[in-house]
Every structure is written in structure tokens, then in C-alpha cells.
Amino acid sequence: MPIGGNLDYALTRVHAHHGRCMDEAGWRRLESTRDLGQYLAALRSTQLADWANGFDPEHDCHTFERMLRVEWRSYVDRVAGWHPLAWQPWLAWLAWLPGLSLLAQLARHEPAPAWMLADPLYGPLAPGTPADRAAALALTALAPLQGAVAGQTTVSAAWRTHWHSLRPSPDERAQRSLDLLLQAMREHEKSLTHAAESAEPARAELAKRLQRLLRIAAGTVIVTACHLGLVALDLERLRGGLARRRLFAGQAEH
What we know:
This protein has 254 residues and is an all-alpha fold. It contains 13 helices and no strands. Helix 11 (172-194) packs antiparallel against helix 12.
């Protein structure tokens, strides 16, 4: 059973965890290593070490991604649990963000790839038609996304609709900060849609905006949402680093 926390206590813990995030200098040192084995060894000496539990140079990209999704869901659930009960579902729903692209694949009519079938969470949803998958989804915590898999809306729109439905009424100051957060998310999504090649510039811009907003929103639960957004961006960067070294071993980084 969830136990509600005090917001001031929760934000103190969030700031403590945020202070342990890796800075750009740390990222540059890590990314100077091009060999996957050396990259993993260097990773274990950084602030991201806890995210690398169980990583092995023999893992393929799909295994790395699956493990990162599991760690992310665990972290979001833990952070959400520090907060007052009213805010916990709204924060906890962020745990499903990395899986939205997988659900979008399940909305297509082609068979699911083997790597998805091997996923313990999404694999049981993958057999059959999109209608079969939507019916299976209805029996899980992802039931609010059933309509997206059935083709009635997009996965991102269904995710946002449910997220908004979970939000308690914030006070005026928190609402202003939330409006800025939602604007940043919308503009980031638009930037990704129009990105010609790399999405890195869009992610870097979003990170800057979230860092600024984290300060503007001081004392509100929006601080936690910004922190989780920044952690998610770090994990995307880590995911990219792992994939490049797994797929292009021995080639120069660009």
C-alpha cells in the first residue's frame, strides 16, 4: 500500500539525488572511451554506476535497453513514493515513457520482432493483431493506452491524456511552472519530429530548459517532474553510448 510523504521532505531527497547527476565534464570523460568493455568499466566509476547493474559487454542493444527500462521504472516508482499520496500516480505514470515506442510498434499490423517477444513486460502483449494486443493491454497497468494500440489515437496522445487525468489541482505557482513544463515538452516533441539527423541538439535544449525550470519551480512538485525528465535524458544519452559501442565497435565516434 502506498505511503504518503511530506512534500518538503520529498523535494529534499529529490535535490540530493539531483546533485549526484553527472555533469558534462563527466560525460565527456566517459564518452572518450570507444570500446564497449572499457566504456562499461568507466561507467561503473561514475554517478551512473547504479544504472549499470548487470551490464555485460556481451549483451546486445535490446538487452541494454530492456535493463534500462526496468531500472527507470524502479527509480520513478521509488521517487514517486516519497511524495504526498495525491501526487504519486501522476509522477508514477512517467515510468512508462520509455516504452511508448514499443507500444507504437504494437499498433502496427506486422508481427512483433523477436526481441520484443523476449521482453517480459511487452512480450506477452505482442502476439496476434493490434486488436488482440489492445485486449491484452486492458488487463495491465497500461490499460489507459489501449485505444492507441487499437488505432484510435496516438500512443503519445493517450499517454498525455491519462497523465493529465491523474494530476491533482496544483496551486497557482505550481500551475505556472507546470504550464512551462508542458510547453517545453510540446516544443521538444515538435523538434524531434523535424530533426533532420541527430536528435542531440533537441535533447540538449530540453535539458537546459528543465534545469532552468527546476530552479523556477522550487518548492513545488514540478521540481520532481523536471528532475525525472533530466534523468530520462541522461538515460537516453547512456542508451545511445551503449548502442554505438555495441554496433560500431572500433569505429570513430561522430
